[in-house]
């Protein structure tokens, strides 16, 4: 799109031979994202028009056949993004539209705070509803606290995921309504989990270090270290007193929809230390059954419970550690 877009982490993929919108697809300087008004302000429109031909060559037989369509597409995306920025709490903005010429062809567009595993979760959700994805545009941008400056994604400001997906479905409106409801829930869950990710990992790191100092706890310390070494996706945490009262919740465990069944599972398992699979389906990444790691802490008279799923790499790799 622009110099503001060029260095973003963004993807567009449909079929395997259609991997477009990489870093240097646009070299023009289209600074319309500097303003949150519903007007595209091009500071270097001539440069944009020169590079448009280069960009068109990468499009081939896709759904943006000419320069006018590209320009209209960019304008529409900007309007949607700027409307999202006007929301007070940056709550997810979702829109699903049926194509005029094809009743089975739909466009999903949403803006929300970026989070770990977010795009993977949404693709998995589309797959679970048996929708066929044809295209994905997924730029990630950063905005400052006052929403007056927009840059490429960074670690200092709020990162916003602006996702545009085209998919096909031969189901009725009820299925789409159910999908939209589930989508809102999944976006909220991924944001909660990502927000508490550092605290969850820091907590397990702290416990792992304390386990090394205790007799007969070396195996649990080794397991904790292995999980922390990019072999496990942590989605939630609960701290319990006497396996009856729960004093602290992080990640997906903040949501009562997932907190209650996890608490019920904890109460039903009287073992002090364990690492087991539950019957609760993960709402993030792969929709596999959640796992729970239980580590008692006699010093503080509590038990720590971490929940998530094993990373696929740890499951597929032939590893003696696994």
Kindly list the characteristics that best describe this protein.
322 residues; alpha+beta; 6-stranded antiparallel sheet; 5-stranded antiparallel sheet; 9 helices; 13 strands; elongated; disordered N terminus
What do these coordinates show?
By secondary structure, the protein is of the alpha+beta class. It is 36% helix and 27% strand. The protein has 9 helices and 13 strands. The strands form 3 sheets. Strands 3, 4, 5, 6, 7 and 8 form a 6-stranded antiparallel β-sheet that branches. The chain has a 5-stranded antiparallel β-sheet with strand order 10-9-13-12-11, sandwiched between helices. The chain has a two-stranded antiparallel sheet with strand order 1-2. Helix 6 (197-212) runs antiparallel to helix 7. The chain is elongated, with a radius of gyration of 23 Å. The two termini are 44 Å apart. Residues 1-62 have low confidence and may be disordered.
């Amino acid at each position: 799109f622009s110099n503001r877009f060029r260095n973003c982490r963004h993807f567009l993929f449909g079929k395997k031979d259609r991997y477009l919108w990489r870093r240097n697809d646009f070299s023009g300087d289209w600074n319309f994202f500097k303003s949150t008004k519903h007007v595209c302000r091009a500071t270097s429109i001539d440069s944009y028009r020169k590079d448009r031909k280069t960009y068109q060559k990468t499009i081939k037989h896709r759904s943006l056949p000419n320069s006018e369509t590209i320009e209209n597409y960019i304008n529409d995306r900007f309007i949607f993004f700027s409307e999202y920025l006007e929301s007070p709490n940056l709550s997810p903005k979702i829109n699903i539209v049926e194509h005029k010429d094809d009743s089975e062809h739909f466009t999903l567009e949403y803006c929300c705070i970026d989070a770990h595993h977010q795009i993977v979760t949404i693709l998995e959700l589309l797959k679970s509803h048996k929708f066929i994805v044809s295209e994905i545009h997924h730029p990630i941008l950063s905005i400052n606290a006052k929403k007056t400056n927009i840059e490429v994604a960074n670690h200092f400001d709020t990162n916003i995921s602006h996702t545009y997906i085209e998919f096909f479905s031969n189901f009725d409106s009820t299925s789409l309504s159910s999908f939209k409801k589930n989508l809102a829930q999944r976006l909220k869950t991924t944001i909660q989990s990502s927000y508490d990710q550092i605290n969850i990992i820091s907590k397990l790191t702290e416990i792992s270090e304390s386990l090394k100092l205790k007799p007969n706890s070396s195996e649990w310390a080794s397991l904790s270290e292995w999980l922390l070494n990019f072999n496990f996706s942590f989605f939630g945490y609960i701290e319990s007193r006497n396996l009856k009262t729960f004093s602290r919740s992080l990640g997906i465990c903040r949501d009562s929809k997932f907190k209650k069944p996890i608490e019920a599972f904890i109460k039903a398992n009287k073992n002090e230390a364990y690492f087991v699979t539950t019957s609760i389906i993960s709402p993030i990444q792969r929709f596999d059954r959640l796992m729970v790691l239980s580590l008692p802490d006699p010093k503080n008279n509590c038990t720590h419970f971490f929940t998530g799923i094993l990373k696929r790499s740890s499951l597929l790799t032939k590893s003696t550690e696994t």
